[in-house]
Amino acid sequence: MPSLIIALAGAVFWSLWAVRGLIQRRLVAEQALRSEYAFRKAMEDSLTVGMRARDLEGRVTYTNPAFCQMVGFSAEELIGARPPMPYWAPEELENTQAIHQAVIEGKAPREGFEIRLMRKDGSRFDALIYEAPLIDADGQHTGWMASIVDVTARKHAEELARQQQEKLQLTSRLVTMGEMASALAHELNQPLAAITSYNTGCLNKLESGNFSAGRTPGRPGQTRRSGAACRAHHPPRA
After folding, report:
1. Quick one: pLDDT band at residue 235, thresholds 50, 70, 90?
2. Tens-place pLDDT, residues 27-55
3. In terms of pLDDT, which residue wins out, 238 or 18?
4. What angle do CA 9, 14, 17 make, to 5 degrees?
5. Cα–Cα distance for residue pair 136/143, rounded to 1 Å
6. Is residue 10's pLDDT more than 60?
7. Parallel, antiparallel, or unpaired: how do β-strands 60-63 and 50-55 relate?
8. Residue 36 CA to chain centroid, in angstroms?
9. pLDDT value of residue 88
10. pLDDT average, residue stretch 175-202
């Protein structure tokens, strides 16, 4: 009998020891899981790129804080949403729906695509989106994960650069036209000077004879004035 009691006591002690070991291992695993979750959440919160997951039917299953801030909707407002999404711009609805269908069919371009989206306050922004298959631990395709980048500032900068380039091209054309006008004036100065000299000689001959200068048309004076004006605006080149 005493041996049986000792055996039972030993079995109980061993069981308690085993349970204690299991509890300790579970506590360690839970602590590791909490640490991993905290690390993952810190990474998600620090991302400036929006992340959004959808299932195979297109329903939103996950959004990170960056995407919520980007569109102005909370995660609670987005999780479970189905097309058309609340952040789709009405004027882009047909194009957005076509892109959504292409993604669901696995035909999303690998290089990504640009699309105009709408914030909760109604303002628009341009987004660059990359879609990738979402695979679970068993290797099954369960949906799509998208990374979204707000490229509004970049596109605005590109538009400003384009406008500046157009202004530079216009200025260049105006400078070229000015150079052509200057060259043309230079070419005209010589024949105008010759005409002026010829008319002056004719006037002198008329005044030295019996002809009256008053009967002579005013063309010589007009010619001199035209030549002087041309030379004033475009001086002869050295």
Report:
1. low
2. 888 887 777 767 677 667 767 899 999 99
3. 18
4. 125
5. 9
6. yes
7. antiparallel
8. 35
9. 96
10. 77
CB atoms within 10 A of CB 118: 20
User: Domain 47-150 has what CATH class?
Assistant: alpha beta
Q: Which strands form 141-150's sheet, in the order they lie side by side?
A: 60-63, 50-55, 141-150, 124-135, 113-118
The pair of structure tokens assigned to 199 is: 């008319």
**Structure tokens that stand for 13 in this block:** 């002690």
Cα separation, 146 vs 132, whole angstroms:
6
Give the Cα separation of 46 and 69 in Å (integer).
Answer: 12
Place of tokens 């000792």: 6
Angle at CA 46, nearest 5°, toward 40 and 48? 125
The whole-angstrom separation of Cα 46 and Cα 24 is 33
Q: What are the sequence ranges of the domains in the chain?
A: 1-46, 47-150, 158-233
Torsion of CA 23, 25, 28, 29, to 10 degrees: -100
How far apart CA 100 and CA 53 sit, in angstroms, is 13
Res 162 pLDDT > 80: no
In angstroms, the Cα distances linking 79 to 41, 44, 89, 90 are 17, 16, 19, 21
Residue with tokens 């002026």: 196
Candidates 135, 139, 113; CA nearest to 55 is: 135
pTM: 0.57
The whole-number pLDDT of residue 213 equals 47
